[in-house]
Amino acid sequence: MKKIFILLLFISIKTTAQTLPDFVSPAGRTKVFETRGDLDKDGIDEVIMAFNTNKKIDRTGYSRELYICKIIGGKLKLWKKNTSVLWNSEDCGFCTDNGIDLSIVVKNNTIIIQQTFWHNTRHTSKHKNIYRYQNNDWFLIGSTYNDDYNCGFHHTYDINFSTKQIHVNYDNEDCEDSVQLYPATEKNFKYPFKSVPKMDGFTPGKNEIKIPNSDQFFYY
Question: What is the pLDDT of residues 145-185, one digit of tens each?
Fold first, then answer.
């Protein structure tokens, strides 16, 4: 049985190596981030890279691309290219003094990408999105959006797309009086998503859905 498993694994690796193209660093691009981690539970790390393109979009800077590569036979093989999940290079609001906040990590065979938008020095919108390879494609399986205003409000929108479970928390603070302006509240409910969103075509912060039986919305 062990020999059969090893043989099947060898055939799978060989087939993958034949179908995936070699990764060639894209011309005119500048690499801004790289990390590694196992994304398909084969015990071999994949390489994830973010590049700035040479296409500048108004004041939001250069568009960005995400590349996911396998290492096969000592060579990088392009597994996935995405052009939607990363914000443009300067699409971070008033972030000049803070730098552009981009974090990409691999955990539990998923890619976790975090990006921050500064509305001003006190108000930030932080997006954490979790992507996983399943059913022969890449999907968004989780999203956490924190909308924070220092000495003001703290709103959290947490979504598990696999279970369709939503958790929304509304909190606030008054730094001068150390009292809450209004009681903290939270909502837990399921939303009937038609399907788990795919990575391709998804951009963090561009989605707004009305909470059932409410005048409020949740975001991702």
Answer: 999 998 888 999 999 999 999 999 999 876 766 666 667 89
Cα–Cα distance, 56 to 103 (Å, whole number): 22
d(CA 116, CA 22): 33
- Strand pairing of 30-37 and 46-56? antiparallel
Residues 62/54, Cβ–Cβ less than 8 Å:
yes
Cα–Cα–Cα angle for 25, 11, 81, rounded to 5 degrees: 25
Q: Is the Cβ–Cβ distance between 45 and 37 less than 8 Å?
A: yes
Token pair in block for residue 58: 């108004």
Tell me the C-alpha distance between 9 and 133, whole Å. Answer: 18
CA 88 to chain centre: 14
152 within 8 A of 94, measured Cβ to Cβ: no
CB 73 within 8 A of CB 23: no
Instruction: Give the whole-angstrom CA distance, residue 139 versus residue 143.
Output: 11
Token pair listed for 176: 């001068």
Tokens 């062990």 belong to residue: 2
Asked if 207 and 217 count as a contact pair (C-beta separation under 8 A), the reply is: no
